[in-house]
Structure formats: C-alpha cells, structure tokens
C-alpha cells in the first residue's frame, strides 16, 4: 500500500520540488498540501508545473489537516517547523527542509538564528561518515542547508583521509531560488540579471556553523570555516569552490585516491575524471553532486569544487533520499540522476 505524504509549504520552492520528485516515486501517494498566506488558492495557480495536482486546493497548515499521513515534509520558513512537528505523532516520519533541527549546539543556533533552539534531529546527508546508519529507521530528519550540502560533499574526503589542515576557505555561487519565492528587492530580475554579488561576507552566514559541524567530526579536530556566498544570475544551482592548506607531504596521487575511496559506491556523488570540472548546468533538475579535486602545489592547497542543484540534492532530493533510507527503501527510488540540458 502506498505511503501517504503531506507537504507543508507546498506553495514554496522547496515544497514544490519535493512534490515534483514524489509525483514520480512509486511508493508514495500525495495527501494534504498546505501553506500560509495562499491557503484557499487552487494549487495550479501556485505551482503550474505540477499538472497532476493542479485541481487541488492549498489548505492551511494545521495539525488537523496534517493528521492521518505516514510522512510529513516541512518546507516552512525557519523557526516554524518545531511547533508543527510537535503536533505530529512519533509514528509519523517528519522531514524538515528548514534549519530548525540541523545544529547541535544551542548557543550557536541562537547566535545565528536569533531564536530559542528547538533541538537536533538526524542529519540528512547520508554520504557523510556514519550518517547513513543514523538515518535508518528514524522518524525525524533534518535536511541540510543547500550550501552545507555542496561544501561538505566537496571537502569531507580530504578531511576523512587527514590530508587537509582544519581551516577551510569557501566561495560559493548560488542561483536565486535559494532565497525562496517571496519577492526581495535584491532578487528582482533587473537587479540580478547580468550581475554577481557577494552577501553574508565576514563569517555571518548561518550556514558557516553547519559546515563546521559537518567537517569537524570527519577531520577529528575542529575545522574553522571562512565562507563567502555569492548570488549568481541563474534560477538554480550551486558551484562551491573550497580550499584548505594541504598537510605536509600530501601528493596529488594520494589526494585523488582519497576522493576515489570516499566516494566509491555513492549513487549520487560523482568524482569527475581528471581534467573535467563540475558545472551547474550538468546537475539542473538532478540529485547528482559533481566533484573534482586538485592539489595546487605552488600554494600548497587542496582545491575541491562541487556542483549541485540547490533545490534537488541541496533540498528536496536530499530529503527524499534520506526518506528512502529511513523507510528502508532503495536509496535511489524516485530520484533523477540525469540533469536537463542545454
Ligand atoms: N530554496 C532553497 O534552495 C532551500 C530552502 N530550504 C528551506 O526550505 C524552507 C522553505 O524554503 P523555500 O521553499 O525556499 O521558501 P518559499 O518562500 O519559496 O516558501 C515558503 C513556504 O512556506 C509557507 N509559509 C510561509 N509562512 C507560513 C506560515 N506562517 N504558515 C504556514 N505556511 C507558511 C508558504 O506558504 P504561502 O505560499 O501560502 O505563503 C510557502 O509554501 C525554508 O526553511 C528554507 O530554509 C532548504 C534548503 C534549500
Ligand atoms: C541564494 C540564497 O539566498 N540562498 C540562501 C540559502 C538557502 C538554503 O538552503 O538554506 P536554508 O535552508 O538554510 O534556508 C541564503 O543564503 O540564505
């Protein structure tokens, strides 16, 4: 029998992408679609690309509407997931695309999000050492932020093999959908088109501690992260350029071997052949993460680059992948491996 899924925040980018993927998932039946200000609207006016759901109506996000489902995805603004999740039974699988349950340290949460810490759930990045096992059978999943997904996948093999010093410098470009659907002045077409711009410069971006939380345990020592996000004139995609000083004696051969070993058998994370570099257009609409690594011998630095679709591997695809693991289903079920090109 199909598992019945509700999506809260179904009118948003994250919720819409979860639905696009779940409509192609053989074990899932779509139940309630809920939102906030658009409740009452015909779904086809909100997500016109999701034709099978066009005649549905967006409902309010209440415990009554979300009751009676096997799985509930939350694609709500930060800080709103905890109250909704609390009203859902412990037997319901809750997959939170927001940030509420990602960070372990309450003081760090309060510093970066400015609200009380709700708690910590198993973290939905199965490729990180130990995480896949922790997701099996869980009823609660915290889906990672899109930048931490791109960055952690690019750097964890170097840290797992103890090849990198614990100070990472990251510059990543994101498509505008990362900022959500609400209209923001700096995201208007005429402001974004033909321009790239940095934001959150100087260590203030809330994804910085999430990256450090992911990489530190892999490295076996705290990793300091310097992260600069930039906004790129494209709707989707993240290209993360990550670098760290190489430990003494590291060779290009050892580095490549470490990445081959760490990523071997991963269904979605691919180390590209030498000389080929990740680009966002290759992962548009796909749950793949493309990785390449090089040793800059002159500077003594490891350079690791990743490309993901922020709405797929960076949100909804990662969420469905983790859901599959939690339910004991094949990890790849319902997830696109191919991008859309050109
Ligand atoms: N965009 C991305 O790349 C990523 C997003 N995320 C996370 O996913 C979550 C959603 O982000 P995103 O989809 O981009 O945001 P959007 O702004 O596109 O969507 C927000 C959704 O939340 C609903 N909503 C807003 N306020 C309320 C409320 N008070 N009560 C009930 N529903 C409400 C909206 O409904 P309505 O339309 O009715 O107002 C809409 O469905 C965020 O926590 C974000 O951090 C995570 C990773 C990546
Ligand atoms: C381009 C852009 O604005 N991106 C968002 C990140 C989106 C995301 O994945 O993050 P959360 O789930 O933590 O919101 C930002 O920098 O705030």
From TrEMBL:
<dbReference type="GO" id="GO:0003942">
    <property type="term" value="F:N-acetyl-gamma-glutamyl-phosphate reductase activity"/>
</dbReference>
<feature type="domain" description="Semialdehyde dehydrogenase NAD-binding">
    <location>
        <begin position="4"/>
        <end position="136"/>
    </location>
</feature>
<comment type="similarity">
    <text>Belongs to the NAGSA dehydrogenase family. Type 1 subfamily.</text>
</comment>
<keyword id="KW-0055">Arginine biosynthesis</keyword>
<comment type="pathway">
    <text>Amino-acid biosynthesis; L-arginine biosynthesis; N(2)-acetyl-L-ornithine from L-glutamate: step 3/4.</text>
</comment>
<dbReference type="InterPro" id="IPR023013">
    <property type="entry name" value="AGPR_AS"/>
</dbReference>
<keyword id="KW-0963">Cytoplasm</keyword>
<keyword id="KW-0521">NADP</keyword>
<dbReference type="InterPro" id="IPR036291">
    <property type="entry name" value="NAD(P)-bd_dom_sf"/>
</dbReference>
<dbReference type="InterPro" id="IPR050085">
    <property type="entry name" value="AGPR"/>
</dbReference>
<dbReference type="InterPro" id="IPR000706">
    <property type="entry name" value="AGPR_type-1"/>
</dbReference>
<comment type="function">
    <text>Catalyzes the NADPH-dependent reduction of N-acetyl-5-glutamyl phosphate to yield N-acetyl-L-glutamate 5-semialdehyde.</text>
</comment>
<dbReference type="GO" id="GO:0070401">
    <property type="term" value="F:NADP+ binding"/>
</dbReference>
<protein>
    <recommendedName>
        <fullName>N-acetyl-gamma-glutamyl-phosphate reductase</fullName>
        <ecNumber>1.2.1.38</ecNumber>
    </recommendedName>
</protein>
<dbReference type="Pfam" id="PF01118">
    <property type="entry name" value="Semialdhyde_dh"/>
</dbReference>
<keyword id="KW-0028">Amino-acid biosynthesis</keyword>
<dbReference type="GO" id="GO:0051287">
    <property type="term" value="F:NAD binding"/>
</dbReference>
<dbReference type="GO" id="GO:0005737">
    <property type="term" value="C:cytoplasm"/>
</dbReference>
<keyword id="KW-0560">Oxidoreductase</keyword>
<feature type="active site">
    <location>
        <position position="146"/>
    </location>
</feature>
<dbReference type="InterPro" id="IPR000534">
    <property type="entry name" value="Semialdehyde_DH_NAD-bd"/>
</dbReference>
<dbReference type="GO" id="GO:0006526">
    <property type="term" value="P:L-arginine biosynthetic process"/>
</dbReference>
<dbReference type="InterPro" id="IPR058924">
    <property type="entry name" value="AGPR_dimerisation_dom"/>
</dbReference>
<dbReference type="Pfam" id="PF22698">
    <property type="entry name" value="Semialdhyde_dhC_1"/>
</dbReference>
């Amino acid at each position: 029998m199909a598992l019945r899924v509700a999506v809260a925040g179904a009118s948003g980018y994250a919720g819409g992408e979860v639905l696009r993927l779940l409509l192609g998932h053989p074990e899932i039946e779509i139940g309630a679609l809920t939102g906030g200000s658009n409740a009452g609207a015909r779904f086809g006016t909100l997500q016109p690309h999701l034709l099978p759901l066009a005649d549905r109506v967006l409902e309010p996000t209440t415990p009554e509407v979300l009751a009676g489902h096997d799985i509930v995805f939350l694609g709500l603004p930060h800080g709103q997931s905890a109250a909704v999740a609390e009203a859902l039974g412990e037997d319901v699988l809750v997959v939170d695309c927001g940030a509420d349950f990602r960070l372990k340290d309450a003081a760090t949460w309060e510093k970066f999000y400015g609200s009380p810490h709700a708690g910590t759930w198993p973290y939905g990045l199965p490729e990180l050492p130990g995480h896949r096992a922790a997701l099996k059978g869980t009823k609660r999943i915290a889906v990672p932020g899109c930048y931490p997904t791109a960055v952690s996948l690019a750097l964890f093999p170097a840290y797992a093999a103890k090849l990198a010093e614990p100070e990472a410098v990251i510059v990543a470009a994101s498509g505008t959908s990362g900022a959500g659907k609400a209209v923001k002045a700096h995201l208007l077409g005429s402001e974004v088109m033909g321009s790239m711009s940095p934001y959150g410069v100087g260590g203030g971006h809330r994804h910085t501690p999430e990256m450090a939380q992911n990489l530190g345990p892999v490295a076996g020592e705290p990793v300091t992260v310097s992260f600069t996000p930039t906004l790129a004139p494209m709707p989707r995609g993240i290209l993360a350029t990550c670098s760290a000083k190489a430990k003494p004696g590291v060779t290009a051969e050892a580095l490549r071997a470490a990445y081959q070993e760490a990523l071997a058998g991963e269904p979605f994370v691919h180390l590209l052949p030498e000389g080929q570099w990740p680009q966002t257009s290759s992962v548009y609409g796909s749950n793949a993460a493309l990785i390449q690594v090089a040793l800059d011998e002159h500077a003594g630095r490891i350079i690791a680059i990743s490309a993901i679709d922020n709405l797929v591997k960076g949100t909804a695809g990662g969420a469905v992948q983790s859901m599959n693991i939690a339910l004991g289903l094949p990890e790849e079920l319902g997830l696109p491996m191919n991008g859309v090109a050109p």
